[in-house]
TrEMBL record:
UniProt organism field: Lamprotornis superbus
Keyword Signal among UniProt keywords: no
UniProt keywords, alphabetically: ATP-binding, Kinase, Nucleotide-binding, Serine/threonine-protein kinase, Transferase
UniProt enzyme class: transferase
EC id: 2.7.11.1
InterPro entries: ARM-like, ARM-type_fold
Molecular function GO labels: ATP binding; protein serine/threonine kinase activity
Reaction equations catalysed: L-seryl-[protein] + ATP = O-phospho-L-seryl-[protein] + ADP + H(+); L-threonyl-[protein] + ATP = O-phospho-L-threonyl-[protein] + ADP + H(+)
Protein name listed in UniProt: non-specific serine/threonine protein kinase
């Protein structure tokens, strides 16, 4: 492959031959060293959709080797930040330097109208972005505006929305809030991510991913004054629509806590939500997940942020939140 970059047939057959080793466990460590060759072949022959698909499929199979991750049918059966359960979690690092990240970005831009292929490559981007190094390189090559453009265009596609929000989560949590250019780009992600959540409220997998992305954006201080109330209401809707999804409840509450830390408006929006008391919703969610320490911790964090505001604290007292806190303390005495 390296000796014949310009010959598409050589690259295609090389990728096919490499793919034949995927099921061989002993070949796996060697396949990991091939990622740069594969992505460079994709970039060199960027007009060939067939080669893009074959290269992307091989990279996905390498990354998901041995993990049982479904990459060809339904959206990945994992949740943010659970998507890190890939080969990366076992100490395997995909060789994704800045040049490889640039190759993937070129591919995304060249085939930005092909929904089926974008669904595949966005899944790949989600998997590799679980690596902090990879996330940094994707951010350096400027992939965030492209992700947002894809989301706007394919807001109806649950798999694309799931993957893109997962990548946004990774890029935001590992981002540098002191970089003004990055900050401006991330701020533009807020309305798009909110639109994803609004359009997929009943799809628990996508809603979890969007809630996580909003949480990360809140941590980076990407919200404006006009965003707090509608975003808090939207997150409450996500909790109401998916009450039994523990990961969504946890991430939704963490996102709410981050918003409340930034603005009292968000806290008041929780208390005065037009669809019912957010405090009662918190109580209901705890009783549904009383055996989940992660959910309890997120709920406690949210309540702790809310009581920083005197008016909100008085309302919470009137709704007997102390009783709920006592229950949590009894349930998790050593946490």
């Amino acid at each position: 492959m390296q000796a014949s970059w310009d010959i598409e047939e050589v690259q295609a057959k090389g990728i096919q031959h490499l793919a034949s080793f995927v099921k061989d466990g002993s070949a796996f460590p060697y396949l990991l060293t091939c990622t740069e060759v594969i992505t460079l072949a994709m970039k060199t022959h960027i007009d060939s959709l067939d080669l893009q698909v074959e290269g992307c499929t091989l990279l996905l199979e390498i990354l998901s080797q041995g993990q049982g991750v479904q990459i060809h049918s339904k959206p990945l059966k994992c949740s943010i930040p659970m998507f890190v359960v890939t080969a990366l979690e076992q100490g395997v690092m995909m060789a994704l330097d800045e040049s490889v990240a640039s190759c993937l970005l070129h591919t995304v831009r060249k085939h930005s109208e092909n929904e089926e292929f974008l669904s595949m490559i966005c899944t790949l981007l989600m998997m590799v972005s679980a690596s902090e190094v990879a996330a940094e390189n994707l951010r350096k090559v400027g992939i965030i505006p492209d992700l947002l453009s894809i989301l706007r265009r394919f807001l109806h596609n649950d798999k694309i929305c799931f993957s893109c929000c997962a990548v946004l989560w990774s890029l935001a949590v590992s981002g540098n809030s002191e970089n003004n250019a990055d900050q401006a780009v991330l701020e533009s992600a807020v309305p798009v991510t909110s639109a994803v959540l609004q359009n997929h409220l009943q799809n628990g997998v996508v809603a979890e991913s969007a809630c996580s992305a909003l949480w990360a954006l809140a941590l980076q201080g990407c919200f404006t004054d006009s965003d707090y109330e509608p975003t808090a209401a939207l997150l409450l809707d996500a909790l109401r629509m998916n009450p039994k999804r523990a990961v969504l409840v946890k991430n939704g509450c963490l996102a709410l806590a981050s918003l409340v830390r930034l603005s009292e408006t968000a806290a008041l929006a929780i208390l005065l939500d037009s669809k019912g008391s957010g405090v009662e919703l918190i109580k209901d969610e705890y009783h549904l997940h009383f055996d989940q320490p992660g959910v309890a911790e997120a709920l406690c964090l949210l309540m702790n942020e809310m009581v920083q505001y005197d008016e909100v604290m008085l309302d919470m007292r009137s709704q007997k939140m102390e009783k709920l806190l006592s229950e949590i303390k009894l349930q998790f005495p050593f946490s």
